[in-house]
TrEMBL record:
Record-level GO cellular component terms: mitochondrion; nucleus; oxoglutarate dehydrogenase complex
PANTHER family from the UniProt entry: 2-OXOGLUTARATE DEHYDROGENASE (PTHR23152), 2-OXOGLUTARATE DEHYDROGENASE-LIKE, MITOCHONDRIAL (PTHR23152:SF5)
Subcellular location: Mitochondrion; Nucleus
GO molecular function, one term: metal ion binding
Taxonomic source organism: Sphaeramia orbicularis
Name the UniProt record assigns to this protein: 2-oxoglutarate dehydrogenase complex component E1
Superkingdom field: Eukaryota
Keyword vocabulary terms for this entry: Calcium, Glycolysis, Isopeptide bond, Magnesium, Metal-binding, Mitochondrion, Nucleus, Oxidoreductase, Thiamine pyrophosphate, Transit peptide, Ubl conjugation
Ranges for domain Transketolase-like pyrimidine-binding: 642-855
Length: 1014
């Protein structure tokens, strides 16, 4: 073996061996031994902390000329060479060789020099890892941003701490070789220790604290180091400083103006974090320059939402000011919302880049972080429809409060969607307005993590903490964040450490709970004053120029205020954050009030059925169980029948043919919770090879997206809601694994889906598929809680609606959402197609079956989907009772699965001519017209409402007053079903069957029946 190969082998030994064992950089292991390292790896000495490539580079330089390296490395390489010539290197392991045997041949001085160099390398790494803990982040100077005043022992904050590394004061002026993992030297490769510490302090311990060393990607870490360590990197031209000052003036004076004009109004202003406005505009400028032309934003109602609308989105000031008028009347439909919840959409030219840009601020409720996944869903949809597969045209920005960012679980859920293939938006910039308090709660009792931003570490997002009273530091961090997102397409967090000048709102008294903080805040000089003084002292602007800029914006506000008094009516259509061009008229109305036919040609049904029962790809091996399912589908198609899975296939496939994108998302939706769907086939022999037959239906069809979600309801449902906002020409569905799993997404349902149109004029056609049915599976796998959806339905129970046009369509137009419980696959197919063929969009809630998925009686014929057929809001009894309705003794109204149990019992009791069973398929809006027809058809019959749910649940409380309105209180209507209960269902199978038997006996006992009057 040559001398060269032996030496390189020795030099590589420790680091390469460690990398094989631990998978981390050797410096990290040697600086901080980690759990899981083997004894061999952990034994690598601190004397070899630089990477193998760095040592090799030094060695090559030394081979050319020994003077090319420091004298300490010269001595080190000479000893290694001597060792290799003696053959020792080939006899011993590199790690053992480096542990002292070789160094023992050199002088103690040389050994000390080497150890000192490596100690300095460790010191540099310590600042990179922990420097943010001592950064000057709090503008008030009274709290530590990480809630801990402890100074890490490996940071050199005092001279005596040099001893931690075996150094002393005499070493401060010695020069040391810099490792390749730092940029503090600029062009220099060596620096005195005093200068090294000074530059590390400037990079990591000033007004910016950087958390990034947990990122497991070397290139990304190096990129961040270069951005913050390179000397002189944070420089601004005079022009940039003047722009920053002008933006800061607008941010500050807007809040001052509102405070003067409406001193007693809540506005949730930005005072204490005025730098947010120039920060957002810097992110937008930098992103626009990189090619982004659409930005979707979300933020809480706090932290200056009106300011963001005015100075970032550029909503007209007079439209904002007029909303403070208490006498204002709404001109459009809807109840509206408070002004600091509203959204906005604006297309304009970015003056910094001269490029067109679209800005959208999503409307949201007071549930602080609920808008996060909604924003992500809308951003993903815009990227999808524009073919922006890398997020180079569309991006999202999310603003958060510190307490909510740490405390709200939906933040975590949203982060965990960030890199999933079907949910990623290719990087979001998160801006945390960290005013170091949550309402009245001190952060020291509000979170367990050092920072409110620690949740972002789960996805290896870099976190930039910055003192919000240093505008230039904030702007630099925003530039870097925008560059990071554009370069790596990953999330990044900006933590604006600031304060809240007033209470939770302007009417609140914060001294009750934070007296010391607010004593300091009252003494705190405004950031605008501090920054303007700085620029005046630097000669960047004059005092006169500053005052003129302030007066200029004040004049703009005054003129807008005067103009706002002429606004007599509030046009809430200005609130739209996602307009749908060409879908509505210019006035925002549907272009028609008719629904296109939902029936289908036999040819289309056959084609979809054959594709659904086959594998379009060649040499694709499927599971034998799936093969049996496909053969069963083929038999159904041959017999012109369909089960639930085929009915869904017919709906999706026919819409895809018409160019309608279909997206189905949720837990395990690809196969289906009940193994009925199998929309994604998996090759049993080739990993990751899949087949989605639905995407092989037609040559020019729209794409079909079916994706298993993370185990989340709140975040994923919010995401799909946002996705549905982007376009009306898409069918977006979310399926719960079991119906009651929507419990954990109730906030999205209540705040966005049920009331979104009334509050924000936002049409949305999202579909919720909620498996529902009392089948003895226990309390948590039975009820989709239909009573909750029905309680929030807005149709009037005491008024029989009258319409001049199509009753069905007019009623749907007036409702806030549609609730159905289909009992046949054909009706399920029709209602999905109707959802798209309506001239407007409403959320659709479908209680889907479980046992009916395979029940032979619950099948439909192709004739039920033929041309001329449509969704049946009510399915009358078309059996023997319909031939002589005057002789019928009892009419049972029901919905969903219980129909088949009732029908089975009727046959067993031989009562086909005595009892009619009528299915209510569309529950809300209530089909008054059709129910009236059925009631009048059976003039001599007792009327019964039968449900399998408990009396205090299900549909009873909703249908009862509406039935009474239909019969005008002239006929009694009886209730049959389970008694009231606390839990949705029993967990005992025997009890379940006994309950079923009991109400079946009641429903069909004609002579003894004295039910409970509704």
């Amino acid at each position: 073996m040559s001398k060269f190969r032996v030496i390189v082998g020795v030099l590589r030994g420790g680091s390469a061996h460690w990398l094989r064992r631990c998978g981390e950089s050797p410096a990290r292991c040697w600086a901080e031994p980690r759990r899981g390292c083997t004894s061999e790896a952990a034994s690598v000495p601190a004397a070899v902390t630089s990477s193998s490539s760095y040592v090799e580079e030094m060695y090559y330089a030394w081979l050319e000329d020994h003077k090319n390296v420091h004298e300490s490395w010269d001595a080190y390489f000479r000893n290694i060479q001597a060792c290799s010539l003696s053959g020792e290197a080939g006899e011993r392991r590199p790690s053992t060789l480096l542990q002292g045997r070789v160094l023992s041949h050199s002088s103690d001085v040389a050994q000390k020099v080497v150890e000192d160099h490596l100690a300095v390398h460790t010191l540099i790494r310590a600042y990179q890892i922990r420097g943010h803990h001592v950064a000057q982040l709090d503008p008030l100077g009274i709290l530590e941003a990480d809630l801990d005043s402890f100074v890490p022992s490996d940071l050199i904050t005092t001279i005596d701490k040099l001893g931690f590394y075996g150094l002393d004061e005499s070493d401060l002026d010695r020069s040391f070789q810099l490792p390749a993992t730092t940029f503090i030297g600029g062009e220099a490769t060596t620096l005195p220790l005093r200068e090294i510490i000074c530059r590390l302090e400037a990079s990591y311990c000033g007004h910016i604290g950087v958390e990034f060393m947990f990122i497991n990607n070397v290139d990304q870490c190096q990129w961040i180091r270069q951005k913050f360590e390179t000397p002189g990197v944070m420089r601004f031209t005079n022009s940039e400083k003047r722009t920053l000052l002008a933006r800061l003036i607008r941010s500050t004076r807007f809040e001052d103006f509102l405070a003067r004009k409406w001193s007693s109004e809540k506005r949730f202003g930005l005072e204490g974090c005025e730098v947010l406005i120039p920060a957002l505009k810097t992110i937008i400028d930098k992103s626009s320059a990189a090619g982004i032309d659409s930005i979707i934003m979300g933020m809480p109602h706090r932290y200056g939402r009106l300011n963001v609308l005015a100075n970032v989105i550029r909503k007209d000031l007079d439209q904002i000011f007029c909303q403070f008028d208490p006498k204002l009347e709404a001109a459009d439909e809807g109840s509206g919302d408070v002004k600091y919840h509203l959204g906005m959409y604006h297309e304009r030219i970015n003056r910094e880049t001269d490029k067109d840009i679209t800005l959208s601020l999503m409307a949201n409720p007071s549930h602080l972080e609920a808008v996060d996944p909604v924003v992500q869903g809308k951003a993903k949809a815009e990227q999808f429809y524009r073919g922006d597969t890398q997020g180079k045209k569309v991006m999202s920005i999310l603003m958060h409060g510190d307490a909510a960012f740490a405390g709200q679980g939906v933040v975590y859920e949203t982060f965990h969607l960030s890199e999933l293939p079907s949910y990623t938006t290719h990087g979001t910039i998160h801006v945390v307005v960290n005013n170091q308090i949550g309402f009245t709660t001190d952060p020291r009792v509000a979170r367990s993590s050092p920072y409110p931003t620690d949740v972002a570490r789960v996805v290896n997002a870099p976190i930039f903490h910055v003192n919000a009273d240093d505008p230039e530091a904030v702007m630099y961090v925003c530039r870097v964040a925008a560059e990071w997102r554009n370069t790596f397409n990953k999330d990044v967090v900006i933590d604006l450490v600031c304060y809240r000048r007033f209470g939770h709102n302007e009417m609140d008294e914060p001294m009750f709970t934070q007296p010391l903080m607010y004593k300091q805040i009252r003494r705190q000089e405004h950031v605008l004053k501090k920054y303007s003084d700085k620029l005046i002292a630097e000669g960047v602007v004059t005092l006169q120029e500053f005052e003129e800029e302030v007066a200029k914006y004040d004049k703009i506000c005054e003129e807008a205020y005067t103009s706002s008094k002429d606004e007599k009516i509030l046009h809430i259509r200005h609130w739209l954050d996602s307009p749908w061009p060409d879908f509505f008229t210019a006035q925002g109305e549907p272009k028609s009030m008719t629904c296109l036919p939902t029936g289908l040609d036999e040819e289309i049904l056959q084609h979809i059925g054959q594709t659904a029962s086959s594998v379009p790809l060649e040499d694709f091996k499927i599971h034998p169980g799936v093969s049996r399912i496909l053969r069963g589908r083929a038999d159904l198609v041959k017999n012109r029948q369909m089960d639930w899975a085929l009915g869904e296939y017919m709906a999706f496939g026919s819409l895809l043919k018409d160019g309608i994108h279909v997206r189905l998302s949720g837990q395990d939706v690809e196969r289906g919770t009940f193994s009925h769907r199998h929309h994604v086939l998996h090759d049993q022999e080739v990993d990751k090879r899949i087949c989605i037959s639905m995407n092989h239906l037609w040559a020019n069809q729209a794409p079909y997206t079916v994706c298993n979600s993370s185990l989340s309801e709140y975040g994923v449902l919010g995401f799909e809601l946002g996705f549905a906002m982007a376009s009306p020409n898409a069918l977006i569905l979310w399926e719960a694994q079991f119906g009651d799993f929507h419990n954990t997404a109730q906030c999205i349902i209540d705040q966005f889906i049920s009331s979104g149109q009334a509050k924000w004029v936002r049409n949305n056609g999202i579909v919720l598929l909620l498996p529902h049915g009392m089948e003895g599976m226990g309390p948590e796998h039975s009820s989709a809680r239909p009573e909750r959806f029905l309680q929030m339905s807005n149709d009037d129970p005491d008024h029989f609606p009258e319409f001049n046009g199509d009753f069905e369509v007019q009623q749907l137009y007036d409702c806030n959402w549609i609730v159905v419980n289909c009992s046949t696959p054909a009706n399920y197919c029709h209602v999905l197609r109707r959802q798209i063929l309506l001239p407007f969009r409403k959320p659709l809630i479908i209680f889907t079956p479980k046992s009916l998925l395979r029940l032979p009686e619950a099948r439909s014929s192709f004739d039920d989907l033929a041309k001329g057929t449509k969704f049946r809001r009510v399915i009358p009894d078309e059996g023997p009772v319909s031939q002589n309705p005057g002789q019928v003794k009892r009419v049972i109204f029901c919905t969903g699965k219980v129909y088949y149990e009732l029908n089975k019992e009727r046959k067993q009791q031989n009562m086909d001519r005595d009892i009619a069973i009528i299915r209510l398929e569309q529950i809300s809006p209530f089909p008054f017209d059709l129910i009236r027809d059925e009631v009048e058809k059976y003039p001599n019959a007792e009327l019964i409402w039968c449900q399998e749910e408990h009396k205090n649940m299900g549909y009873y409380d909703y249908v009862r007053p509406r039935f009474l309105t239909v019969v005008a209180n002239r006929r009694p209507i009886w209730y049959v079903g389970r008694d009231p209960a606390a839990a949705p269902a029993t967990g005992n199978k025997s009890t379940h069957l006994n309950e079923l038997r009991r109400f079946m006996d009641t429903a069909f006992n004609l002579s003894a029946f004295k039910g409970r009057d509704m």
